[in-house]
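Hey, weird one. I pasted the Phosphoenolpyruvate guanylyltransferase sequence into the form twice and got a warning about non-standard characters only the second time. First submission, copied straight from the form history:
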Amino acid sequence: MPMTARGWRAKSSLSPTGCARRRWAAASSTYLCRRKNNLSDPRMQIGDADRHPTASRVTAFIPVKPLNDGKSRLSGKLDLAHRIELTRSSLRRIVHTLQSTPGVGDIIVISRDARVAAWAECWRVGHMREHRRGLNAALREARARYARASAVLVLPSDLAALSLTDVQGMLAAAQHAGERCVVIAPDRHGRGTNALLLKPPDVIDFDFGANSALRHARRALAHGIQPIWFRSDSICLDLDSPDDLDLYLDQW
């Protein structure tokens, strides 16, 4: 049975050494904000976006599904309210990490969910309403709207362990690659794309979906570009399945 708010209170009354209290606390915003995510670090505070002008900067896109539809594979462990809180906490971490990274300019949250738009406004980042169905179509629309960007970085909203080092590493890889590059951060299975940096933004088309890491690499090769693979324990972990959630709780 998925965890409900009432069940959450019951679990919270267990002994601190109880497995349930430790593992299911992932749905609590307090837990997610305190468990090695460095949100208390002054470098991660809201308002840093003003330090990074958009000229010659990377524009970051963070697509977010409608909240009532997201994280459905976790429904056996978390109820809807906790899945939404999980998305909010992960998205907040990503936004703050980007705001703290020199070289990142515009940060654009892409979603047709009004609640996500309100979060973006609160965190002082841009929001683009998704008009076209499908992730790739929405990203193409965003790329056309922010055509002045020197490069674009796409990050899913469920990278709960994303670090400043991850973003800096991808930007550094792109900087050393020359005028045209494709930097791919695969998921922990080596199949999905957990982050994608394109310089210039239209160097290849977006091809997210099943086994997208290999498809993005093939698109790069077809354009005469050797793809750059970026891997780290934190960026490879997305909260897409119950096993991902368990791994996050064990390691972070």
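That's the output from the first submission. The warning seems to come from a hidden character in my clipboard, not from the data itself. Residues 80-99 form the longest helix (20 residues).
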